[in-house]
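User: Acyl-CoA synthetase short-chain family member 3, mitochondrial. Structure?
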Amino acid sequence: MHFQIKHLVRLNPCVSVQRKRTLWKTLWAVSAAKQRGVRPAGSHASADIQKHFSLQCSRNYASDTAYNRAFASARDNPEAFWGEVGRDINWFEPWSKTLHVEDPVFPNWFVGGKLNMCYNAVDRHVESGRGEQPAIIYDSPVTGTKQIITFRELQDQVSRLAGVFAKYGVQKGDLVVIYMPMVPQAMFTMLACARIGAPHSLIFGGFASKELSVRIDHAKPKLMVTASFGIEPGRRVEYIPLVKKALELSTYRPCKVLIYNRPNMEKVQMIPELGLDWEEEMATARPHDCVSVPSNHPLYVLYTSGTTGTPKGVVRDTAGYAVMLKWTMSNIYGLSPGDVWWAASDLGWVVGHSYICYGPLLHGNSTVLYEGKPVGTPDPGAFFRVLSEHGATSLFTAPTAIRAIRQQDHHAAIGKKYPLTRLRSLFVAGERCDVETLEWAKRSFGVPVLDHWWQT
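Assistant: Predicted structure:
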């Protein structure tokens, strides 16, 4: 069953659906950039910090004049504005028309163009000589594991995993459900899906069997990918019993369930008739090339949490999302390729999709994948340690995380043990940031703190 957008749009008594077209929403990001990128937060910021934080990019929007010009261009002539930005992405076939608006709810961007998200996020960096640069910096205090994965190693893992998917019949348009913890294999799976044009639906690991079953029934995945355990401070989350229960509750069953057994833990038993062992399959897998997809091909479906009703499956297509994300990494966050970036979120949320996985990799940044908490893994100095140890340029987190650190280390005594010589900026989002938290963060991290907001 090939996944199509019309499959989601049809009425469903269990799950209603909304569709997002990314570039239509990007003006929100542009309109907020004035507060984020024009100057460091706080009038007392030093001249060195202000100079250091200036956005370094080919299109410099760091001044009021440049910002106003960019905003006016995106607002008044979005076709010309985004047509220029779109050249920063590699295309298998160029687009014939930047914007076609037959239906204002569903505008078509980069009409006729063909591309591949995985190629832009992985392969092109290897081809351009960045193969030995770190792509993923995995830091897991809950398991005591640290791992650096280069772009070349990422390409190898992702291309072979895509070969596993193809071996079991996953084709362009088939949907894959991902239910995994914060491990590199979750990102491998996302990128492998993109590589063969299979939309993925990554489901937050904190959801239990009932929530998982609802999403399985609605998404109707050809394949499901999961792991043996999730690790929380002081306990393990057994994923396989949750998956088995979800499959019992759901009316739809995927063809296969690929299971990643975490190292240094007991190996879980395969699900009868469905289970595939990750290590065994990868050992014999053949690499798979990137598949060309149209601009509006769905990249993923992300379900809302359901706290305001039934979950809503949000579809994001490929080209608009890729163009917007790469643009934000330089023009909103001020990064250059090669910089280390850390979005302290979860892959199961939209920030994780956009700014742990796709955004930084598209831009050629090293992205930190952190399996831990702001406090308790092992102490409130955890964020400072990660930033210092990996030389991060910028941190993106939620005010709640900063409040938790402040509560346990009010004077940042533990945090001050870690020099933050490369850190330039701290971005907060997801909720209101109160003044006390913002001021504490500025003092403790020693960089501008930029409160910004998006559409969810």
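Confidence is low (pLDDT under 50) at residues 3-62. The domain at 5-372 is CATH 3.40.50.12780 (Rossmann fold).
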